[in-house]
Amino acid sequence: MSDTATFEYKGKKIEFPVVEGTENEIGIDIKTLRASAGVITLDPGYKNTGSCESAITYLDGEKGILRYRGYAIEDLAEKANFLEVAYLLIFGELPNKEQLDKFHSDIKANSEVDEDVKKIVDSFPRTAHPMGVLSSLTSALTAFNPSCVDINSEEDMYNAIVKIMGKFPVLAAWTLRRRNSKPYDYGNASLGYVENMLYMMFKKPNEEYKLNPVVVDALDKLLILHADHEQNCSTSTVRIVGSSHAGLFASLSAGVSALWGPLHGGANQAVIEMLEGIKEDGGDTAKYMEKAKDKNDSFRLMGFGHRVYKNFDPRAKIIKKSADEVLGDLGVEDPVLSIAKGLEKQALEDDYFVKRKLYPNVDFYSGIIYRALGIPTEMFTVMFALGRLPGWIAQWREMRLKKEPIGRPRQIYVGENLRPFVEVSKR
Ligand code: ACO
Questions:
Q1: CA distance 165 to 162
Q2: Does the keyword Transmembrane belong to this entry (predicted)?
Q3: Pocket mutation for ligand 1, best pick of 306, 312, 354, 368 (most atoms within 8 Å of C-beta)
Q4: Which of 276, 325, 352, 418 is the least buried, fewest Cβ under 10 Å from its Cβ?
Q5: Of all helices (H) and strands (E), which one includes residue 5?
Q6: Interacting residues of 379 by C-beta distance below 8 A, sequence separation 6+
Q7: CA distances in angstroms from 108 to 15, 82, 196, listed in the order given
Q8: Catalytic amino acids?
Q9: Which residues, including other chains, have CB under 8 Å from residue 292's CB and lie 6 or more apart?
Q10: How far, in Å, is the centroid of ligand 1 from the Cα of 304?
Q11: Which atom number of ligand 1 is nearest to the Cα of residue 45?
């Protein structure tokens, strides 16, 4: 017989089934709590709430473990490329050569974006934040591809997936090109998926674009490391929007908006802005360490701490090595990076940070790499979105195939009780 957990309230005892995951994580299945006891659980921020059972990504924040479909992130970052990882996340298994080639050529065949989308891109101010533009453009794709995805048709699902995998990088690149006043480019079909991303973003109209293998490798790794992270804020957003049966593109557009925030994907931009601020203020890292610790000061050390990784972020370990390689290879000398190194060292030795287990997270280093690669700061979170795309798709697909119910949390109402309406003239 499987385990149960007993809940007692006002003398009434109720048994709830206990669910055990494949990595022995335990959850109490409280689906019937309200119906049987007339109460709900209260957990703002969902620190103790599992929203689903998922077979995509496993992470253990205490041990610093991250796996996609059972494969260690360290192996994937070292041995696979981003497109293989995307296939793995979405379809559950690593592709063989034939499957991978087909996936890539189907993505390429679907990468064309309607010419009229250019008019939408042109209508944004050049100063608009790229994440706002990307979210709008992703949503606009729904208008240009109105047919619904029949989730019972594998072919329909597959077509929607290769469409968005093809078009999303084009939209991201056009967002950058609009900002930089460069003509829109559809890329080069002879290039790899990641190589083509760089080409579409940085190719100058009258110049050949030369790919730097160090840059390609670093970007490939970064995209892999960001590809999924179980039920984080943007992924939960994608799942909850999709749970209303809104389409894939609309759900992804909401995911982009959720990722934008500085407490989530926007942290990589916030890291560089913080470092630049410290530099402009004279480069006194000790002063900023004190500000971060001062409870009367809202300043936080961006790029430090994580909701689930409480010992170290395994992605940060991998990418720190990559950051050192890229900076060495490209010969980058940048005072902002020296400030980053100073902060990193001080925080790792500081009692406040050590006690609270606040370590540099992946975004501390990803911002540094993007800067070294010449990617504008405001585009950092767009790069994150490019990496997270297959994870969002995989989670949306899983949620729809499992026919999960619409996401609709409850609340405890703490507002006014019923009161009489007062006419405007008497208020
Ligand atoms: N600088 C200073 N103090 C911090 C920081 C920080 N970056 N992060 C957490 N703390 C402190 C809090 O003030 C709190 O202190 P207290 O116990 O004395 O009250 C304690 O550490 C716990 O912090 P919480 O906010 O409760 O931790 P939570 O898990 O809710 O938040 C978060 C995690 C949002 C990532 C937080 O650490 C933070 O704001 N970090 C900076 C932003 C950042 O880098 N975000 C990127 C996350 S990674 C990603 O999205 C890919």
A1: 5
A2: no
A3: 306
A4: 418
A5: strand 4-9
A6: 130, 175, 176, 179, 370
A7: 53, 15, 10
A8: 306, 363
A9: 299, 300, 301, 304, 352
A10: 7
A11: 30
